[in-house]
Amino acid sequence: MNDQEIYQRFMAYMNNPVWEFTESEHLMPMLTSFISPEEAAFLTGFPHSSRTLEQIADIKNMDPDELLPTIKAHCRKGTVYEGKRGDSVRYRLWTAVEMFTRAAFWPSDVEEEAKLMAPHVNKYYMDGWYEQKRAFTHPELRTIPISETVESGTGFMPFEDILKVVENYEYYTVSKCPCRAHHNLDPDYKPSPFPMEVCLHFNELGHYIVDNNLGREITKEETLEILKKSADAGLVHGINNWEESPDTICNCDLEYCTYFKPYHQMGFDKAHEPSNYQVSTMPELCKACGLCVRRCPMDALQLKFSTQATNKFRKAVVVQEENCIGCGVCVHKCKAKAIILKQRETTTRPPKTVKDMVNLNAMAVLTAKGLMEKN
Predict the structure, then answer these.
(1) Tell me: the pLDDT tens digits for 14-53?
(2) Closest to 336 in 3D by CA, of 280, 278, 289
């Protein structure tokens, strides 16, 4: 079997009716710059769902002791996930998106293969690969407000109080933002001005990351400090879009973020899933400085003439409610206290579990492709 056939078998194994490798001149350069033919052959047939070392050894017809070093090398590379629960250790393939846009770019010093892959990832992403997510009803990240930006006395829903969410974890880690990392490695993009070490992971995922040198362990206090630094920089807190056991909090910029980029550059209807809060303005307090307008990641704020404005410009900030995702980035730096986040009249809950979110999105994609009837 030649190399081309090996890669074709790998792609066929990774493809499914919801998500697949799409045709593009950038596909093969992305694959071959990161995964060797030998690695592609090994990953083909590797379980998509979690299995023990012994079970995988049976699948691969290999001795477990001989198999383990290869699996561990793939864990460090970001192609295989290692989950530990008590004494149980199980392995599974990362999904294609996680392999090529996420885990490979977490380490402080990425491997040479990831550096070579980065420009191809960015081109392939924009050449139809990510278009497959347009039909998703639930983006994988949900906005979680900056805590002090919400109106005093408002009762947080448990999954939207970032301080309580952080309190519930037992193990804390941080990695580089993979979105900014693979853009920073691409000469066609300018380096991001935002902090890099702001990708927060917890509990089981955190242990995988630290055990495989994809990030470092931090304390709860350091986690809160990173969140504050990110808010100061104008980054949006985004948490996994399900209620039970979210394991990631991202801090996202509008230019390079995997979720903002489709909204701003590809015309998607959603970026992050909005929080249950939205901006409310007090025009009489507004100084018309324009800082909130510049910080808003969704172009939801404008300065307009107002009869209620008391500043010399006679202008005040106005919110386009349909664009506001309730992140609080604008409120966080408003010295005049002219804007706050208020709870929306209609509130929503995210899917209960990650499996629920995946199933809802899968049904939406299959329906859009005509492979499933609308309910």
Answers:
(1) 999 999 999 999 999 999 999 999 999 999 999 999 999 9
(2) 289
CA 329/CA 353 separation, integer angstroms: 27
Q: What is the spatial distance between Cα 373 and Cα 375, in angstroms, rounded to a whole number?
A: 6
pLDDT tens figures, 320-343: 999 999 999 999 999 999 999 999
What does the pLDDT look like over 227-273, one tens digit per residue? 999 999 999 999 999 999 999 999 999 999 999 999 999 999 999 99
Residue 98 has pLDDT above 80, yes or no: yes
Instruction: Please state whether beta strands 199-202 and 172-175 pair in parallel, antiparallel, or not at all (unpaired).
Output: antiparallel
Contact between residue 323 and residue 279 where contact means Cβ atoms under 8 Å apart: no
Give the amino acid at 313.
F
Which of helix, strand or coil describes residue 339? strand
Please enumerate in sequence order all residues whose Cβ is within 8 A of that of 170, keeping only pairs 6 or more positions apart, or say none: 202, 203
CATH topology assigned to domain 277-343: Alpha-Beta Plaits (3.30.70)
- Beta-bridge partners for 250: 238
pLDDT of amino acid 375: 64
**Cβ contact 83:107 at 8 Å:** no
Query: 81: which strand partners?
Result: 92
In the chain, domain spans:
1-133, 135-275+347-367, 277-343
Report d(CA 158, CA 168) in Å as an integer: 11
Candidates 1.10.10, 1.10.287, 1.10.357, 3.90.25; CATH matching 1-133: 1.10.10
Residue 3 token pair: 């190399």
- Alpha helices (runs of H) in 83-219, residue ranges in sequence order: 96-97, 112-124, 162-167, 178-184, 203-211
